[in-house]
Structure formats: C-alpha cells, structure tokens
Amino acid sequence: MLVPIICIALNALLVFALGFWTSIQRSVGDKIVYYGQPLDPSSSLAKAQRAHGNATEYAGAVTALFLLCLVMGDHGKIVGALMIAITGARYLHAFGFLTCKTLSTPHWAKAIGALVTYVAGIALCLFLIWDITLGPASMVG
After folding, report:
1. CA distances, 119 to each of 51, 63, 89, 127 (Å)
2. CATH at 31
3. Which of 66, 104, 111, 129 is 20 to 30 A distant from 78 in Cα terms?
C-alpha cells in the first residue's frame, strides 16, 4: 500500500526538482536566458529543460497508473516491483539528460531509463487490463 504513494511522491519530487534546476540554469552566467530562445544542445540549460520536460510528460501517466493500482487493491510484489522500476527508470533517465555531453548523442542512462520505463509501464498497463477484464477484479460487481 505504501509503494504506490512513495513512488508517486518520488515522481512528483523529480518534476519539481528538475523544474527548480531549470530555473537556476536560466540565470547562470552573464545573461538571463528566456524561454523559447535557441539553445546549444550541450548547454546545461538545454539539458535541464529536456530532463524536466520529459519527466513532466510521463508524470501524469505514471501517477494515474499507480493510483489505479492503489485503488484496485494489493496486487503483490510484481506490481510493486514494476512501480519501483518505473520510478527508478525516470530518475536514471533524468540523470542521463543532465550528465550527457550533448543532447545530440545517445547516453546509456537515457537509453536504459527509457527502455525500463516503456517495458515496465506497458507491463503495468497490461496487468491492469487483465485484472479488470479477466482477473479477480472482474469478479467484483
């Protein structure tokens, strides 16, 4: 019961921390960089913006999935492990964005973070679909 709540909080923390880091990067250096200006893909600001944007893009879907699992009841260790894997993958993915030399080239942490997010997220979706249509939840009213 605690795993979904902790994972939701950690994903929200990632979004807020990356947003704060992006704001800091906008004001570092000689001049303030405003939203919409062209950026060098190797700049800290470009990396921070992409990390924050990507985390934000997934936060809603991840939160919804985790809340559905919470509402549906205890599903055991597999569902909890998928939630932990997705949350860890989001942090790894953000780490890859922030530490890559440039956004123009691949980075191992971005690739692994994305792959784990996709695989674990799809598995969690399929589990919920199975649970509501064929599993124990289909037996309830």
Report:
1. 20, 16, 11, 12
2. 1.20.120.550
3. 111
- In whole angstroms, what is the distance from residue 39 CA to residue 50 CA? 11
Structural domain containing residue 107:
2-136
- The verdict on residue 94 lying in a domain is yes
Q: What percent of the chain has pLDDT over 70?
A: 89
What is the pTM (predicted TM-score) of this model? 0.89
The string of pLDDT tens digits covering residues 37-51 is 778 899 899 999 999
Number of C-beta neighbours around residue 95 at 10 A: 15
Amino acid at 60: G
CA distances from 87 to 16, 41, 51, 123, 141 (A): 15, 26, 14, 14, 32
